[in-house]
């Protein structure tokens, strides 16, 4: 009778440990570590698992945001990055990551894709949705970007020193 009780206890302990390893916090932490190690494919797998398995967890918004970042870092897939950032704004509009995601959508259009009309639309959407709650520095960055969309660095007085 005693060996059965020990076997059951050990089995339950193993199940508990296996579940704890795949907690949202652990998946997010492991993903960050993989990104630091530049193991982007593995990080994307973990992030997708996190968002898919725990879509309502507090870590999901950050995980979804990191998917967008990873597409930029991993393979410069700007179109997919924009789609992933858009999911943050749509599914987690009250999270702080929605603010950054909306900024990044405009930023990617402006600075990587050079689609200035889409950038303008997305930056204006940022101001409409988040100006009141976003960090003032980020709001100023958006306004600066809107004023200077498509301009050469030499045509922007504040940035002339960069191109010289």
Brief summary of the model shown:
By secondary structure, this protein is mostly helical. It is built from nine helices and no strands.
Strand fraction band?
under 5%
Give me the CATH architecture, please.
Answer: Alpha Horseshoe
CATH topology call: Serine Threonine Protein Phosphatase 5, Tetratricopeptide repeat
* Count of helical regions: 9
Largest sheet: number of strands, sense, barrel closure: none
Instruction: Pick out the low-confidence regions.
Output: none
- In angstroms, what is the radius of gyration? 21 Å
- Count of individual beta strands: 0
Q: How many independent structural domains? A: 1
Distance between the termini: 82 Å
Average pLDDT confidence is 90
Q: Estimate percent helicity.
A: over 70%
> What is the ordering of alpha helices and beta strands?
HHHHHHHHH
User: Which word captures the global form?
Assistant: elongated
CATH superfamily: Tetratricopeptide repeat domain
**Classification by helices and strands:** mainly alpha
